[in-house]
Amino acid sequence: MTLSRRATLGLLAAAPVALPARMARAETFAGRYAYDPQPIGPGIWLVRGADEAIVFGNGGAIANAVIMACPQGGAVLFDCGPSLRYAQGLAAVAEKLCHGPVRRVFLSHLHPDHALGTAAFDPAIVAALPATRTELERDGNGFADAMYRILADWMRGTAVALPGATVVPGPIEIAGRRLQAMALKGHSDGDLVLVDEASGTILAGDLAFYDRAPATPDANLAAWRESLATLAALPHHQLVPGHGPLDPSGTAAIAQTRDWLDWLEQALNQAVAQGLDMTEAGSLPIPDRFAAVKLARYELQRSVAHFYAGIEAQRLPRIDAGSGNGNG
Ligand SMILES: [Zn+2]
Hints:
With 328 residues, the protein is of the alpha/beta class. The chain has a domain at 38-251: Ribonuclease Z/Hydroxyacylglutathione hydrolase-like (Metallo-beta-lactamase, Chain A), CATH 3.60.15.10. It contains eight helices and twelve strands. The chain has helices at residues 5-27, 84-98, 112-115, 130-151, 221-232, 252-273, 278-282, 296-315, and strands spanning 38-41, 44-47, 65-69, 75-78, 102-106, 126-128, 165-166, 170-174, 177-184, 191-196, 201-203, 238-240. It has a seven-stranded mixed sheet. Strands 8-9-10-11-12 form a five-stranded mixed sheet. The radius of gyration is 23 Å and the shape is globular. Zinc ion binds next to loops. Zinc ion binds at residues 109, 111, 187, 206, 215. Keywords: Signal. InterPro entries: Metallo-B-lactamas, NDM-1-like, RibonucZ/Hydroxyglut_hydro, SoxH-rel_PQQ_1.
């Protein structure tokens, strides 16, 4: 569009009017999160995230959250979404289902789609592993900035709130709800897993993805595999992944996550060995067995961005290194 001088002047003249109008629209931002708590056992509900990337349309609500009722009243949350607004809505749903206040919010790991909702709670009731707190201190504000850029008004009022309580691995009881806490890692440096005793459910956080490709921005694949082996050995009935539907078998999501990580690592190593560039590696064929896995191409391309330079450095040592002066 080419603006005539007259039209430009007209726009400038309108600006003082247009600005308050824009602000007024922001005040009445009508985005609403929808919550559909699915009962998955005695006093436990899964609130599903969208199996999508973070985009404005979903308000960043892409991670699963879990609500558990305390026998003595009140609720426990495992993860609380991407924003103040999401977490306030989740808390209202939980308090209605559990006939009492949210007593404790467990944070599975640092990523903003799980963690930034903690802004809605008194930090004293928000609990995480020490490693998660350290990672949030390092990365939290950067994540929040990125989320504001994508999600704008969905994020209003959301600030990084550091957890005020530390999770110690072992048995935990909250108003009669008995949990086992495990300190694992691999998806991030601190991956909290809870096992709910009453329902035999593993709350795996992002150590397990199900029919949704694993995200790897902070991954250590060797540690992740070890953690999956630990989860597979637990006596349990079912598993809630960080993303994707409930796994009623308790084993399929673990196996699929492991399969994806093994394929990914092997495929990227092979791509480097073949001299493919990053764009070519991101276009590699994805095996048919992952046909039902959502966001497979998207996460492959993100994983190329996370890992490729490191694999190249490892497999293709500098030819001027070790020659005595190592300059340049
Ligand atoms: Zn994550």
